[in-house]
Amino acid sequence: MKKLHILALMLLLPFVAVAQQTALSVEGTAPTEMKMIYLFDLQQQAPVDSVANTSGGFRFNRLTENDGFYKVGSRDVMFLLVSDGTPVSINFNRGTLTGSELNERLHRYDLMTSSIEMKMQYAYMANNKQRLDSLRGAWQTLHKTIVTENTDNIIPAYFINEVAYFCPYAEMKQLLAPDKPYYNHPVAEPARTMLSDYELKMSGQPFHELTMNDSFGRPRQLSEWCGKGKYVLLHFWSSAYLGYLQEMRRLVYCYDEFHPKGLEVIGIAMDTNKQEWLRAINELHMPWTQLCDLKRQSAAIDAWGIHQLPVNVLIGPDGKIVASNLFNGNLEDKLEEIFGE
C-alpha cells in the first residue's frame, strides 16, 4: 500500500537524535554484472557513497551516525544494515550478510518481510483477494513480532512505522514509549507523528469540524452529516495514491451494502488537481459526497492528523468517533456488527 510521505516537515527538520559517529566498514563480493555498489542512507533517503565492483569485490569505509540505517547494493538487490561499529561482510552471490549479532538478526528480519511482500505482490497481480488478505495478516503479525522481540535495541526503529499504521493506539503507546532505545531515532519520526495523530482520532472524541467545497464547488461542513443521528464514515484519500485499489473496492461494497441501512460516507480528498480528483471519483464509481480544498497544505492535515493515506474514521450517531483506520476486512466486520449482516 503506498503511503503519503510525512509532509515537508520530514525534509526540513534536522536529524539531531543520533549525535555520535561510528565507523562503518562494509566489504563483500558481488557478481561482475553489478558494475557499481551503492551505499544508501535511509535517513537522508539518498545514496551517500558508491564504489566500482572491481574483480567481484567491493569495500566501504566511512564515518556514519551511530545506529544509522543503510542499504548496500544496486537497483535490483540491496542489503539492510545498521551502523553499530562492527564490520559487515556481504556476499551477493550467496545472499548472505555477516557481522554483529544485531546486523545478522536485522538481515533475517529483512529477508522474512521481503519474502511475504513478494508473495503479496504476486497475489495482488493474480487478483487473489483471499490469499492477499492472508498474507497481509501474516505481514502485520511479523512486523509486530519484530518490534516486541527487540524493545531493548535499535532494530524496531526500522519497522515501527509500518506497525504504527495498523496497531491500536494503546498498544502503540507502549511499543513507542519514550524509554525505548529507538524512540528518538530519526527513522521512527513518522511513527511518532502518527502516534500524535491517533490522539485526534481516538474513540469517544467528538468529530472535528471541517469546511471544504464538494465536487460541485459548493462549500460544505462535516456537521451537515456528523452528529445528526446516523453513522458517518469519513474516507481520506487521494487520486495520486491509488495503490490501495482493493480497499477502494471494499469501500464501494460497504456503501452499497450499508447505505440503505443508514450509513453515510463522506470522501475527503487530499488532492491539488481538480480534474484528476473528479476523474478518479468517476472511474472508481464512488457515489457518495466528495470534499476537497485542492490545497497542498489541506485543512484536513491539522484538523484530523492526516499525514498518510488512506485513513478512515467512523463517526457515531452522536457525533463522537467510534473507530478509525478500519482496513483489511475490519470495516466490513464493524459495519456488520452495527447494522447486522
Distance between the termini: 28 Å
Strand content bin: 15-25%
What is the global morphology? elongated
Count of DSSP-assigned helices: 10
Rg result:
22 Å
| Count of strand segments | 15
Overall pLDDT metric: 90
Q: Helices and strands, in N-to-C order?
A: HEEEEEEEEHHHHHEEEHEHEHEEH
Q: Low-confidence parts, pLDDT < 50 over ≥5 residues?
A: 1-18
Strand order of the largest sheet: 10-9-13-12-11-14-15
Q: How does the major sheet shape up? A: 7 strands, mixed
Q: Structural class from helices and strands? A: alpha+beta
| Helicity range | 25-40%
What does this protein structure show overall?
- The chain is α+β, with helices and mostly antiparallel strands and 341 residues long.
- It has helices at 9-12, 101-125, 129-149, 156-166, 169-175, 189-198, 245-258, 274-283, 299-304, 330-339, and strands spanning 21-29, 36-41, 46-52, 57-65, 69-73, 78-82, 88-91, 96-98, 211-214, 219-221, 231-237, 263-269, 289-292, 311-315, 321-324.
- The strands form three sheets. A seven-stranded mixed sheet has the order 10-9-13-12-11-14-15, with no helix packed on it. A four-stranded mixed sheet has the order 4-1-7-8, with helices on one face. It has a four-stranded antiparallel sheet with strand order 3-2-5-6.
- Strand 12 (263-269), helix 8 and strand 13 (289-292) form a beta-alpha-beta unit.
- Helix 4 (156-166) runs parallel beside helix 6.
- The longest helix is centred in the first third of the chain and has 25 residues, at 101-125.
- It is elongated, with a radius of gyration of 22 Å.
